[in-house]
Amino acid sequence: MPPHAAEPPHATPAGSPAGRVPGGAAHDERLWPGPLGWFLAVAGAGLLAIAFVPVHPGLAAGVGAVALAGTLTFAVLSSPRVRVQDGELTAGRARIPLALLGDARALDRDETRAALGPGLDARAYVCLRAWAGTAVRVEVRDPQDPTPYWLVSTRRPAELAAALGGAGHALGG
User: Fold this and answer.
1) Full-prediction pTM beyond 0.85?
2) What is the pLDDT along the chain (173 residues), one digit of tens a residue?
3) Which of 2, 62, 80, 161 has the most beta carbons within 10 angstroms of its beta carbon?
């Protein structure tokens, strides 16, 4: 098992790349659902409550409240954090030292779609959220790790690529 998969990294570079955000991180982003996702969570709970009104209005209110709490909790728990801080990249629950990473490239929507379709290597680590249509592809240079690259969803691909030390490129071209 690669050293970065389960335990803390043993050798990380001192400090993080330039372009820090508050809190000492070079990049910090939570991949929250978009407005449609939040609306669907509330609408689904509302529809479930309406279905129980003929049984008992109090039961309908209780079922609706539980369903709303459940869907909102699921939305929060399924929203990974993407962070570059203290010499490592964190994407969801996975972490890897920046010293083990190669080139980082920002991908626009079309490039992300191609990278997830015909261009996807089955060995790649993918932290994907459909509501974040862009991503960053970063090469892994760890000889002990069979993972060739990470593909990480982000709403700010140029910023993430820059935080990883990649030049990125102008999106859309």
Assistant:
1) no
2) 444 443 333 333 333 334 444 445 689 999 999 899 899 999 999 999 999 999 999 999 999 999 999 999 998 888 999 999 988 999 999 999 999 999 999 999 999 999 988 889 999 999 998 888 899 999 999 989 999 999 999 999 999 999 998 544 444 44
3) 161
